[in-house]
Amino acid sequence: MNKNKKILYGILYIILVILVIYLVVYITNYYLDMYYAKKQTNLLNEISIDTNEIYLSDNEIEENNIEEIEPIQTERMLKLIELQKENEDIVAWIEIEGTNINYPVLQAEDNDYYMNRNYLKKYSSSGSIFLDKDFKWEPMSSNLLIYGHNMKNGTMFQNLLNYRNVEYYNEHPNIRFTTANEDAYYEIIAVFQSRVYYKNEKNVFRYYYFVNAENEEEYNEYVENAKKASLYDTGKSASFGDQLLTLSTCAYHTEDGRFVVVARKM
């Protein structure tokens, strides 16, 4: 009996040690994810640039109520260019003022790479905000399809789910999207709940397949489906030729649920 007890205690001890190690690793990773997620939001502020090179400052943009920036270099564009020296996969910066969404946007050769890597290419369960691999910059594809995790701690694209309420939309109707070549604003035209559909399902709106329109009909079909699926009418729409921006994150209203925000360049 004493021998059996020793074996049992030994097993319990090993299980306890494993649990402690797991908890330590889990807690460490959790706080590291929080650290890097929050650090990303301040990256542009931490970058120093020669102010003599600035053609238009962020303050001038706000003071003059400029919603669409002409192709001149703004302070944010110059800082993004500096940031790209750290990681060339950083293709843009996205911000929704008054929310936690304020991150670099990355693009890799596949859509799995930044699912669990941060902007430094280090492992992170939060991953990064990333652009669909099929998006082409020259010539520019029709739709900037961008993904981000829905993190319980409020980081990444978790705040997108607040757009379920029209009041939230009214307070945050625009998205700022900055690349090395332009600093532009997009106005939201639709927000909707969706899911990843099975291959055998017919006549469903697979928004996640739309990156570039082959023709005007295909473009209009996407916009019409997005407007039809929208939880409320934003009073905004898009016409063939308008650059689109689609933000997608996981949602839990159904199995493999998604929450989507669609906007057009102003």
Kindly state the percentage of residues in helix. Answer: 25-40%
Give the topology string: H per helix, E per strand. HHHHEEEEHEEHEE
Measured between the Cα atoms of the first and last residue, the distance is: 78 Å
At the first level of CATH, what is the class?
A: Mainly Beta
Q: Runs with pLDDT <50, length 5+?
A: none
Q: What is Rg?
A: 22 Å
Q: Strand order across the biggest sheet?
A: 1-2-3-4-7-8-6-5
The structure class reads alpha+beta
Strand count: 8
Number of domains as seen in the coordinates: 1
CATH superfamily: Sortase
Report mean pLDDT, rounded to a whole number.
Answer: 88
How is the secondary structure organized here?
Blueprint: H1 2-41, H2 43-46, H3 58-63, H4 75-84, E1 90-95, E2 102-106, E3 129-131, E4 143-147, H5 166-171, E5 174-178, E6 183-195, H6 216-229, E7 244-251, E8 257-265
In short:
This protein has 6 helices and 8 strands, in the order ααααββββαββαββ.
Key words describing this protein structure:
266 residues, alpha+beta, Sortase, Chain: A
How would you characterize this protein structure?
The protein has one domain (39-265): Sortase, Chain: A (Beta Barrel), CATH 2.40.260. The chain is globular. The mean pLDDT is 88. The chain is of the alpha+beta class and 266 residues long. Helix content is 30%, strand content 20%.
